Amino acid sequence: MTAMPLPRRATSRLNDLLIAPGASRMERWLSYLTAVVGAGVASAIGVAAGYPPLIVVVLAALGFDIFGGAVVNATASVSRRFHTGATAARRQMIFVAAHVHLPILALILPAYPWSTAITLYIGTLAAAVLVATATPTSKRPLAFTAATGLLVVAVTILPAPPALAWLAPLLILKLLLGHLLPAPGTR
């Protein structure tokens, strides 16, 4: 039996929701490819770590979102969506604040420490406030400064199970370097 393709309108709406309106073919292709690979990698890591099936499914969803989102947030189409208009900084902050992945993971998986989840969530949110409200010329170096500091803290100081050590670094890259930095030429 052959799978029935989604109607064009539904596909367009899905692309607009998961990537951004007006995403190019290459942006869509790279975003979905990376998301699917991320779901597979996260699932394989969860299975290898011996996590229960429900946690493996959660990790697959996180892998899809975080891996794919790191690419999506670096696209010109997302920059047009989040970096233009009078409410750009507000939209950027809402997007970052909505990424409660680490606290939710700590809630459902006792092996992920609350101290790590809360510290990285608050640190990422504070860095996002600084970057989103900075002048255009200081956004990029400020985002890289914050990401560098948070990455070092995430991989050297804060405890995390080895199988979940990829989560915080990729989330930091996705949010601070991908989402908060506009693509060249975005106004």
Describe the structure.
The chain is mainly α. It has nine helices and no strands. It has helices spanning 8-18, 25-48, 53-72, 76-82, 88-97, 101-108, 114-132, 136-157, 167-179. Helix 6 (101-108) runs antiparallel to helix 7 and helix 7 (114-132) runs antiparallel to helix 8 (136-157). The radius of gyration is 17 Å and the shape is globular. The termini are far apart. The relative contact order is 0.13.
Oligomer: single chain
What is the average per-residue confidence, as pLDDT, rounded to a whole number? 88
End-to-end CA span: 48 Å
Give the DSSP E fraction (strand runs of 2 or more residues): under 5%
Report a brief summary of the structure:
This protein is 72% helix and 0% strand. The chain has 187 residues and is mainly alpha-helical. The radius of gyration is 17 Å and the shape is globular.
Outline the secondary-structure elements.
Layout: H1 8-18, H2 25-48, H3 53-72, H4 76-82, H5 88-97, H6 101-108, H7 114-132, H8 136-157, H9 167-179
Helix pairs in contact: 2-3, 3-9, 5-7, 6-7, 7-8, 7-9, 8-9
Structure characteristics:
single chain, mainly alpha, 187 residues
